[in-house]
Amino acid sequence: VPLDAVGFTSLTFTPVKYGVAVRITREMMEDSQFDLMATNLQEIGKRFAENETSLILTALDGATNTVTGGAAATVANINTAALNLRNNDFEFTDLLVGDEFLSDLQNIDLFVEAQKAGDTEMMKTGFKGVIFVAKVQRFSTNAAPTTTYAKYAYAFDRRQAYGIAIKRDITVENYALPSCDMEAATITQRIAVKLLRPTSVSNITTT
């Protein structure tokens, strides 16, 4: 019996620190009709999530295959992207779509008309959760590197496409600044995202 084993390659992740500090005067805290610090932290948490999405999109841009569509996305575009994955022995597990790409999907009768789609999911929720076995997820245009990404979609194998290294999860440190008569908080995160296998991702672009 011949001896053999799976080969591995190394990949180095270098986490980058992202952070922001908030300082609010005691007068503002006292006079406000709502919790100013909590409101700021909630908004900052959203921005950190958008930053993580942006890092993922940037990584997925390194895909080997790109399907160039026309003015609107089509079922054929998605099917071609799925084929690109299968041709490289990967599975089509996820479809990550921008807002304009999602709008195109909402205009495709195959996903809207019950007699073709087999359900009324798109009409009820404005979203199609699964297409060709792949889980469909939307990303916010605000989270993308540029607004052009609203026209893009990414088909990929979630087990092979990219990796995330989190050295420090989102951390909030509250503290007081008595000399300035302020309440403050510092929010930080150390994270890195890298593309693992370029052929496990197929980008779809529209104009």
Could you characterize what this model shows?
It is a single chain. The protein is 31% helix and 31% strand. The termini are far apart. The protein has seven helices and nine strands. The strands form two sheets. The chain has a six-stranded mixed sheet with strand order 2-9-6-3-5-4. Strands 1-8-7 form a three-stranded antiparallel sheet. The longest helix has 25 residues, at 36-60. A hairpin with a 4-residue loop joins strand 7 (162-177) and strand 8.
Question: Could you say which overall geometry the principal axes of the C-alpha atoms support?
Answer: flat
Count of distinct strands: 9
Give the C-alpha Rg. 22 Å
Tell me the major beta sheet: 6 strands, mixed
Oligomerization category of the chains in this entry = single chain
Topology pattern, helix = H, strand = E:
EHHEHEHHHHEEEEEE
Strand content: 25-35%
Instruction: Estimate the helix proportion, in percent.
Output: 25-40%
Q: Briefly note the structural class of the backbone.
A: alpha+beta
Query: Spans of 5+ residues with little confidence (pLDDT < 50)?
Result: none
For the biggest β-sheet, the strand order reads 2-9-6-3-5-4
Number of helices: 7
Task: Calculate the terminal CA-CA distance, rounded to whole Å.
Answer: 55 Å
